[in-house]
Amino acid sequence: MSPELELLLCERYPQIFRYRRLPPTEHSMGRGFDCGDGWFVVIDAACAVIASPYLGAKRHYEWMQEQARDGIPEADAAAIRVARLQMSAKEQQLPSALQVKEKLGTLRFYLEGGGERTRACAEFAQYMSEFMCEICGRPGIMLSDGGWMRMRCEFHDGE
Questions:
Q1: Count: domains in the chain
Q2: Prediction pTM value
Q3: Are the C-beta atoms of 80 and 65 separated by less than 8 Å?
Q4: Which of 46, 47, 131, 143 has its CA 20 to 30 A from that of 113?
Q5: Per-residue pLDDT tens digits for 108-139
């Protein structure tokens, strides 16, 4: 994946991609995203669903702070503390990406933690990649070239 798209994912979901900053000798995410740009949208969508409980709690906390600045009585210090604690709890529940790569022609998104919802998102991302060109994201088909499997559209079938 291009460095620009990798950076965008890491900026949008820093908790999920916390290991991306580590050197490759310390963690497999240190090698980056080992897949094409065409699967960016699938990875982004999976991360959005995975992170949605935390992002919702974060928005609520920020809203409570805004209400307090505006002098709304419901946004007292205790309510803001509760909102901050809920946000922190949701953040702690976020999984960490262990590896994002192409394997046997499809996307593999390995995550640590997060439970059933996280596993379902990773599996759905893999499933969606079975229909998308890894290079550009257009509808694609599985091609085999000397034992190597790859998803390609009609425009990239030679790459």
A1: 1
A2: 0.90
A3: yes
A4: 131
A5: 999 999 899 999 999 999 999 999 999 999 99
